[in-house]
Amino acid sequence: MCTDYTGVRMIEKLLSYLVSDSLQVPVWTIVLAAAVVVAVVWEKRKPRTAQQTTTSQEQKPHAPTEQNVKPTVSKKNIDVSKFVRLKLKIFYGTTTGKSKLFAGQLAEEGGRKGYKIDLVDLATYEPEDDLSEIGTDTVCVFIVSTYTDGTPPESAAWFCKWLEEASTDFRMEKTLLRNMQYCVFGLGNSLYSDHYNTVGRNIDRWIHSMSGKRVTILGQGDEDVVNSRHGGIEEDFKAWRKIFWRKAGPVLTGRKTLMSVTGKSKEGCNDGEKCGGSCKCKDEGGACSSDEDQEGDEPLYETSSEEEDDDAESGGEEEGVVTQNPGGVVDLEDLGKVMKKMKTAKAARRAEESTVAAGGERKEMVTPQLRKALTKQGYRIIGSHSGVKLCRWTKSMLRGRGGCYKHTFYGIESHRCMETTPSLACANKCVFCWRHHTNPVGTEWRWQMDDPELVFSGALESHVSMIKQFKGVPGVIAERFAEGLNPAHCALSLVGEPIMYPEINRFVNMLHEKHISTFLVTNAQFPDAITNLSPVTQLYVSVDASTKDSLKKIDRPLFKDFWERFLDSLRALSEKGQRTVYRLTLVKAFNTDEIDNYARLVSIGKPDFIEIKGVTFCGDSKASTLTMGNVPWHEEVVKFVQQFAEELPDYEIASEHEHSNCLLLAHKKFKVNGEWWTWIDYPRFHKLIKEWTESNGERTFTALDYMAKTPHWAVFGAREQGFDPAETRYFRKNPKKDIGGC
Questions:
Q1: What is d(CA 721, CA 660) in angstroms, rounded to the nearest whole number?
Q2: On the CB side of 103, how many CA atoms lie within 13 Å of its CA?
Q3: Which of the two ends of the chain, N or C, has the fewest CB atoms closer than 10 A to its terminal CB?
Q4: pLDDT tens, 680-707?
Q5: Residue 361 neighbours by CB under 8 Å, 6+ apart
């Protein structure tokens, strides 16, 4: 007992000692601190058990687990179902069944890994309705083969056609597929080297051009065992699958978020920037911006007369590309470049005039580079200065999905309408131009000229050829397909200034001889041409602004006397006997507050009708500063038109087409016994124009001679808002401003 007490006293005395006279800290405090440090170090260096690993993973925040996902335990005892949140959507287009087989294998493998799978046959898929609705909760895989001459399988033909047109159409958003995370595996045979895996490569490129985000590289399976990288197409697919799961796994489980293609990334280059091939775009299966075709300094188009001086004064940024300084001011440091460019343009013009004077040929309006660019955008170029393209409303009505505003306002059959122009050149550089000013510009015709017979036959053949491509497309109505092969209307409003074509009257007469009605649009810069124009079914003048300053700001005309030409064109329009139309394009922050001035312009031209439409957003461009903020909502357009109508005692709102964001003001002379007669009696028009032609213009007629009654659903205030009840309307899941254009 004494021994125990002595021991305790000794320990108590030892722990109460101070470290030193200068450091007044008991020894026991130092001992305790050292023990704590040792314990912390030991805890951090101690190996973690599998149970602790799983617990720490569970504590990390993750998105909610997808329902119906089977939990799968990995070798490290990690429950994958804790991470899975994305769906795997596998599309296939096949001819022999191989693509379907591969899609099934990938789906089966994904099912075993616990992912929710959706297997889709492209033959039954509707891209127009569903593709842009795919969100960030899905990873898409496209497995498609290449058929004869680089064409897609019949089951994927419509999908590829829609995708190609959407990717090249300026009226479609370039960020349409920004939420899509995708990859592509193509099936082909390298023995057909010219078309090897063309379809797979195209699908990958088209989706990427609309801001789709690649999950992994483009896979290319080769049926030729000799050239195949892995000894056959099955082995190629097996090797690609390994890469796919390695790349897609983190995305599917939410552990990795793909960067948008519009942002800056170490693995890619910014849109529009040249990286010199130093980026990793190729590694990710895509094309680098530095690989785009470079044709030296060849301009996209020829310019003429006043346009050369105007472009030089505005300080154009690129050779051959028409741009304009928004402020109209040239920096002093750029003055030398401007003068050099002006001298070059004038020297080229003098050289060309000398060549023509000596009996040489004029240059073609469309250069090889422009022809290539427009063809890529879906245009069919006719001869050296004309073009034709299929309107989206033509496709829509072929499938029973509704017609354009001309169907509502005037009764045309949209599926039988040919959209063309005999002149791709224009005298304006409008801020809302669909082509972003890649089309030719000029104030006079100084190019080679094709005969109207060539232009007419080329336009008709090209249009019918494009209609034929819709044979077998899901949803196309057989009766309308047959009717579409026989066009009944021609919209001379595709692009450019059709009235510039010196043989426009002969071309119009050819259309009428084939009983094709004519809707011709001019930009009001050629008053003499309007005066000399033969009767057309309906003649339009674009009235984009109501004052000299605002017209210069919006249309950016090339003529220096543009305002005088504009007013003279309106006066010439008032003297035409047939149907005439003012077409107003509303651009917020540009021309929506000029109602009084617009009313004065109406008194000059005295049009039969006034179409007011919200501007169509054509995507971002260095040539234009417009954004979606400049696009008015339909309610805003209606309000403007109502206020406008109050200033026009002879006009009333007759019709609207809500889908196109467009309304129609009509002169009251077309309101008979309280009912609107804005539609056109087309057989009657063709009879009248035939009599006019045979009498050399002596037997005249007016707009009232071929009017027809407007159906109730097309009248303003109707519940249908201009949508034909005989058609089937499809709505987007995420409604927003319509930018599709018409």
A1: 11
A2: 27
A3: N
A4: 999 999 999 999 999 999 999 999 999 9
A5: 355, 448
For 105, the 3-state DSSP assignment is: helix
Mean pLDDT of 223-252: 90
Domain coordinates of the chain in residue numbers?
2-45, 86-260, 306-357, 368-714
pLDDT at 173: 73
- Element housing 582 (H / E): strand 579-586
Average pLDDT over residues 247-256: 86
Question: What does the block give as tokens for 56?
Answer: 């720490």
Class at the top of the CATH hierarchy for domain 86-260:
alpha beta
Segment 408-425, tens digit of pLDDT: 999 999 999 999 999 988
Asked whether this chain's domains 86-260 and 368-714 adopt the same fold, the reply is no
Helix (H, G, I), strand (E, B) or coil at 168: helix
Look up the CATH number of domain 368-714.
3.20.20.70
Residue whose entry in the numeric block shows the structure tokens 């460019």: 341
Distance, CA of 348 to CA of 357 (rounded, Å): 14
671: tokens are 């309101």
SS3 track for 522-537: ECCCCHHHHHHCCCCC
- The half-sphere exposure of 242 on its side-chain side, counting CA atoms within 13 A, is 5
Neighbours of 582 (CB within 10 A): 23
- Spatial separation of the C-alpha atoms in residues 240 and 221, rounded to whole Å: 9
Q: Which pLDDT does position 79 carry in this prediction?
A: 52
364: CB partners within 8 A, 6+ apart:
302, 384, 385, 447, 448
